[in-house]
Amino acid sequence: MEYYYDLLSQPSRALFIILKLSKIPFEAKEIALATGVHLTEEYKRTANRFGKVPCIVDNGFQLSESIAILRYLAHQKKIAADLYPSDCKIRARVDEYLEWQHENVRMGCAMYFRKKVIEPMFLKSQPDENEIQKWFYLMEKSLDIVENQWLLNTKFIAGDKVTAADIFAACEIEQTTMAGYDPCKNRPKLKIWLKAVRENADFPYNEAHKQVYQWAARMGGTLEL
Amino acid sequence: MEYYYDLLSQPSRALFIILKLSKIPFEAKEIALATGVHLTEEYKRTANRFGKVPCIVDNGFQLSESIAILRYLAHQKKIAADLYPSDCKIRARVDEYLEWQHENVRMGCAMYFRKKVIEPMFLKSQPDENEIQKWFYLMEKSLDIVENQWLLNTKFIAGDKVTAADIFAACEIEQTTMAGYDPCKNRPKLKIWLKAVRENADFPYNEAHKQVYQWAARMGGTLEL
After folding, report:
1. Which residues touch B52 (CB under 8 Å, ≥6 apart)?
2. Residues 34-53 in A contacting B (C-alpha not used; CB under 8 Å)
3. CATH of the domain at A8
4. Each residue's pLDDT tens digit, A71-110
């Protein structure tokens, strides 16, 4: 199986960590999004017709969308059982988070980072303060829902163990530190949770976040957990 | 199992059709979003903590997010086999579409409808032409990807049979007709596909879309398929 990813992409990191924790072997195809190689016709033909990361090519079968890839591998019983539990209700809670995340944590954190950092850096444009504020609001609201709903009664999102939901969530939330933002400020549960996710996912998590931590340090966003 | 839904909500319709086609019995809890009942504390406590539709309460187990509900029921082998096939690759293609849809077909079509029709109607505000244009662009781009990618080589999204992916997609796309828009114009494959989805999903599809068709007729958006 070939795995195409850029560790500066949140879902690329999440899937990278999950593949490593599940001990699924893969041929690493690191793609630097900044070079635009993912937009070439060759990439679209041989890897992902939508021109995005992450994606896999499994014996010729091309599949994109990180959560679809998670499920494809789980279907084949390759994902570590704890990360995507077979218990019907726990798995449903993991799925519920992963579906909820798209228009909430993912969109808020990713768009805030993009408008605040990426577009001014790469497009050399003035930051659009209206756009930044709009996504800042969604980011804050989504993180508050993680604090007050998803972590209301449980140590992790779907219970007392780390699952894929926590890893996907943490990778989105870590992204904000590259904009110098502190997602844990005034969110004590989220802070304890993020530390626990980092510890549980251990080496692969650190490997995946190496560039993020360096970038965050330059932006004054290093988290003290 | 209690099913909370509003047939003017796209994922509510999709799940309604899938439940009916799969012959899954449910206690119908119709929620009129226009009344705001889904935002009450009682609804959040007894049905869905996020205050949205659709959701289920299955013997006390509360679950939201339409796609998570689909998977929860499929996990228990309750969903009709054709709609969410057990073949690993076909299911992966269904999942890939359902994940892709969030920020594409769903967001484009839903936000266009909201900015064009709902907000001027309910907030009595002037239509915001910039916002309408922005979502119109995403809607058109997403529908073009359905035409040129998802339906490139296959009759339906994941092969030669209707699956949950087609039903979710069709329910999002039908919504645009309530804004007087014709999603099939200049998209011949999409037109043939939408007609085939309607025919395959038959009675439940018509039942679910009764209000949509009436509304579309008032807006001049009735589709001639």
Report:
1. B38, B64
2. 49-50
3. 3.40.30.10
4. 999 999 999 999 999 999 999 999 999 999 999 999 999 9
Q: How high is the ipTM of this complex?
A: 0.97
Residues 6+ apart with CB under 8 A from A90: A158, A159, A163
> Is the sign of the CA dihedral B209, B140, A142, A213 positive or negative?
positive
Place of tokens 């915001």: B128
Closest among B160, B13, B11, B184 to B98, alpha carbons compared: B11
Give the mean pLDDT of B50-71: 98
Considering only CB atoms, which chain A residues are within 8 Å of B145?
Answer: 50
Touching check for A89 and chain B: CB below 8 Å?
Answer: yes
Q: Say if residue B125's pLDDT is above 90.
A: no
HSE-CB for A148 with a 13 A CA cutoff: 9
For residues B92 and B71, state if they share a domain: no
Report the domain count for chain B.
2
Of the two residues A47 and B123, the one the predictor is more confident about is A47
CA B99 vs CA A70, A98, A191, B94: distances in Å: 11, 10, 28, 9
A87 near B CB under 8 A: no
Tell me which of A75, A105, A134 is where a domain ends.
A75
Contact B65 A107 (CB under 8 A): no
Is residue B104 located within the same domain as residue B207?
yes
Same domain as B45, residue B134: no
The answer to whether residues A101 and A173 belong to one domain is yes
Q: Which domain holds residue B123?
A: 88-218
Among the partner residues A50, A63, A88, nearest to B92 by beta-carbon distance: A63
- Whether A96 and A13 map to the same domain: the answer is no
Q: Per the domain annotation, does B80 fall within a domain?
A: no
Q: Is residue A159 part of a domain?
A: yes
A71 in contact with B, Cβ within 8 Å:
yes
For residue A81, is it within any domain?
no
pLDDT (0 to 100) of residue B123: 80
Which of A1, A63, A95 to mutate against chain B (most B CBs within 10 Å)?
Answer: A95
| Residue ending a domain, choose from B75, B96, B111 | B75
B151: domain CATH number is 1.20.1050.10
Q: pLDDT digit string (tens) for B134-180?
A: 999 999 999 999 999 999 999 999 999 999 999 999 999 999 999 99
Tell me the per-residue pLDDT of A137-172, one tens digit each, with 9 for 90 and over. 999 999 999 999 999 999 999 999 999 999 999 999
Place of tokens 């549960």: A189
From A60's Cα to the closest Cα of chain B, the distance in A is 11
Model confidence over A107-126: pLDDT tens digits? 999 999 999 999 998 887 78
